[in-house]
Amino acid sequence: MAAGTKRRVRMSDVAQVAGVSLATVSRALRFPESVSQELRGRIETAAQRLGYAPNRIAGSLAGAHSPLIGVIVPSLTNAFFATTLERMTVTLEAEGFQLLIGHHGYDLAREARIVSAFAGWNPAAIVVTGLDHSRETVAALSAADCPVVEMWDLDGHPLDALVGFSNTEAGRFAGRHMARAGYDRIAVVCSTPDKDPRAAARARGVLEAHAEATGGRGKAALISVDGRELGCGALGLDKALTEVPDLRAIAFSGDMLAVGALFEADRRGIRVPEDLALVGYGDLDIASNTNPPLTTVRPPRGEIGTAVAEHILKRLKDPDRSGEIVTLNVEMVVRDSG
Amino acid sequence: MAAGTKRRVRMSDVAQVAGVSLATVSRALRFPESVSQELRGRIETAAQRLGYAPNRIAGSLAGAHSPLIGVIVPSLTNAFFATTLERMTVTLEAEGFQLLIGHHGYDLAREARIVSAFAGWNPAAIVVTGLDHSRETVAALSAADCPVVEMWDLDGHPLDALVGFSNTEAGRFAGRHMARAGYDRIAVVCSTPDKDPRAAARARGVLEAHAEATGGRGKAALISVDGRELGCGALGLDKALTEVPDLRAIAFSGDMLAVGALFEADRRGIRVPEDLALVGYGDLDIASNTNPPLTTVRPPRGEIGTAVAEHILKRLKDPDRSGEIVTLNVEMVVRDSG
DNA sequence: TTGAAAGCGCTAACAA
DNA sequence: TTGTTAGCGCTTTCAA
Question: What are the residues whose beta carbons fall under 8 Å from the beta carbon of B63, sequence distance 6 or more?
Fold first, then answer.
């Protein structure tokens, strides 16, 4: 399997075998209708017989853009973005596009570097997560000279197209729910609000809505933790308990945090929701399986992927759609934990 | 941000501004040492000032291969492969490579299609998961004419290079552990063994090693479930309990299955491990957080990513390394669930 | 409907 | 050390 052994079949080989010109093969393959029935047949047969596979690099150089779509998410190991990526891939692959995937670990400088690298591929579109970008990212995005889609957020001003939901509203759902359920003293445990603006927005939403719904008589504390893993949830529970006297409920910026807290509560003999109510965010698969099942807010993680893919597809056919905003909804999923 | 507005800076622009030839710019950028100190400075300044970013498509057409590396995994939402992908990305991005990521959902026909599509990009290497491929995949892989790395398995014959661990051995660890812990009547709950050969190999390993270690006096049943989610774990527990009288322990083909069973056991008032021991596979973050913490087998998920990336890097410099096999180890992590 | 030919923006011989 | 030049394998005018 050493490189450089066998010569790859190219379009000119097909042309020769089919007895037509190179240009005709290109047309027959790209726009079958534009070629006579007979030649089309001959060309397809020849291509088949030779096992011809187009060289995408060459095609992209000759064409205006490559059928490559750059997508940048904070993390690949985060189930939220993984679902979005899976859905995007499926829709876009069916149309002949390939995804260039990058992740920056919530580091905006890395995001800028990845965008620059992607731009060098002349992609058909670039998708980034969130509305918060460095000056360099914005410059690189504009230099890429292709449609740009921001996703997973709605609270802010998009550079171009936007597909997402309001994280503030997601938080407000939780805050309102907690107030209505009668939890007046609450805490919000949020992972790295300084680095994750969407988590921070959700936390703010919880606080605002809770204050409104309790008519200002409720108490709420914001507690930040340094990660998204279960261990941080347990830690958050501990902090919340010591910082807030008579704590009645905790909202978390992510389901895994909430599950971690649920485990910790179990260890401490704290009954959920009788002693303490717990509310998550994400509606990950695990949320409906815990004991008790987790009350949470469901973001449209798969829907975002599909909507982004569909937007790009429409957009490439009709450039007028630049600046389009697709609003998706979150949903309050009330189970037994709070 | 409409496409086609501004003309992109290209290498010839840099050459003109720096007052040198195109070729010199190419060399200065690719092999700085091969150009005189003075010109290098002038060229770098010019490139900087113009905001030059190389067109990778053009570079790849002129060169032998593109700095693209195709990676195909079964699923993106599976934490196992996500970790591998994250590590691969980090190592490879630092060397100027981009990853083309595809997923086939354990469907070998889809795998073949993705490999073909990737091959069209003239990638520097292609990475696939497992050793089980369709005839079409093998053909497409060989037509791609680049290094091929198979990963996440070791039980079988590689096409070229291989980076992984023995899934059979991973299962044997669990089976042996269970026998030694005195669990003579066990069940193995395995997700889609027909579609996931690695899970099937692990299940076989458990059965074999358990039979050996109990001197054939143990009893073991294989139970298959139709998914990898927590719900399937609960279902598996139920099936195992009805199918195996006096069941003492269950091994699962994945941690999420085991966690689902743990939740279900809790609901049923089955004490773990007193009434029933549970053993997982994966050592996902959650495994160390459950109540009780989960005994499991840890596969080298991050290590695989790093090792694959490093192999590719070395390989591209030194083609002799074709057919290299990198063996990684699994580890038995004994906690309290079994 | 088909063919000829001019690039796309680089890399890599080869010459100087 | 630097420049000249011939492609890489396609797409896309333009002419026939």
Answer: none
A63 vs A153 pLDDT, higher one: A153
- pLDDT (tens digit, 9 = 90+) per residue, A61-99? 998 889 999 999 999 999 999 999 999 999 999 999 999
Residues in chain B closer than 8 A to A160 (CB atoms): 1
Interface residues for strand C (CB within 7 Å) are A 20-24, 27, 34-36, 38-39, 61-62; B 8, 10-12, 22-23, 26, 29-30, 52, 54-55, 58-59, 61-64
Contact A228, A256 (CB under 8 A): yes
Q: How many domains does chain B have?
A: 3
Read off the pLDDT of residues A162-191 as tens digits, 9 standing for 90 and up: 999 999 999 999 999 999 999 999 999 999
Write down the pTM of the prediction.
Answer: 0.94
Cα(B16)–Cα(B21) distance, rounded to whole angstroms?
A: 7
Nucleotide nearest to B62 (CA to C1'): D8
CA nearest A95 in B: which residue?
A: B117
Domain of B43 in residue numbering reads as 11-54
Straight-line distance from CA A31 to C1' C1, in Å? Answer: 13
Interchain proximity A290–B263, CB inside 8 Å: yes
Cβ atoms within 10 Å of B30's Cβ, excluding its own: 12
B337 in a structural domain: no
In a domain, B223, yes or no: yes
Residue A147 within any structural domain of the chain:
yes
Judged against a pLDDT cut of 80, whether residue A2 lies above it is answered with no
Asked whether the beta carbons of A279 and A296 are under 8 A apart, the reply is yes
Check residue B1 and give its pLDDT.
Answer: 41
Is the bond into B193 cis (omega within 30 degrees of 0)? no
Confirm whether B5 is domain-assigned.
no
Chains A–B, number of C-beta pairs less than 8 Å apart: 168
Chain D bases closer than 7 A to any CB of the protein: 1-5, 7-13
Q: Is A53 on the interface with B (CB under 8 A)?
A: yes
Q: Could you give the angle at which helices A11-18 and A37-50 cross, rounded to 10 degrees?
A: 120
B6 pLDDT band (50/70/90 cuts)?
A: low
The yes-or-no verdict on residue A279 having pLDDT over 80 is yes
- We report the CATH number of the domain holding residue A172 as 3.40.50.2300
